[in-house]
């Protein structure tokens, strides 16, 4: 997935059908960028370094980890018992 003069030339020499699965995957990444990445980058600017980007995969992965950790912290352990009955 390079964008160089040689790669573009090769692509024009050997065209192929559009893979709709690749198109859908790219669209999903773009949406996740807007939901997670754009909101995390300003936080990184304040806490770490101005102009730093959360990145595409990293920002979404971090959001999932943070959400899961919050769920884990809110989890309350409880005792439970199984009951079986035959009627």
Key traits:
mainly alpha, 3 helices
Task: Report on the architecture of this protein.
With 87 residues, the protein is mainly α. Helix content is 64%, strand content 0%. It is built from three helices and no strands. The chain has helices at residues 5-13, 20-47, 56-74. Helix 2 crosses helix 3. The longest helix is centred in the middle third of the chain and has 28 residues, at 20-47. The chain is flat, with a radius of gyration of 23 Å. The model has no long low-confidence stretch (mean pLDDT 83).
Number of separate strands: 0
Radius of gyration: 23 Å
Bin the helical content.
Answer: 55-70%
Largest sheet: none
How far from one another are the termini? 64 Å
Order of helices and strands: HHH
- Mean pLDDT over the residues: 83
| Shape field | flat
- pLDDT under 50 segments (min length 5)? none
Strand content: under 5%
Structural class assignment: mainly alpha
Count the helices. How many? Answer: 3
């Amino acid at each position: 997935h390079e964008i160089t003069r040689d790669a573009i030339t090769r692509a024009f020499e050997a065209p192929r059908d559009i893979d709709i699965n690749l198109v859908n995957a790219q669209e999903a990444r773009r949406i996740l960028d807007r939901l997670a990445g754009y909101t995390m980058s300003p936080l990184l600017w304040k806490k770490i370094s101005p102009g730093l980007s959360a990145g595409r995969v990293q920002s979404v992965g971090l959001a999932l980890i943070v959400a899961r950790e919050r769920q884990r912290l809110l989890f309350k352990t409880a005792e439970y018992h199984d009951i079986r009955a035959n009627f």
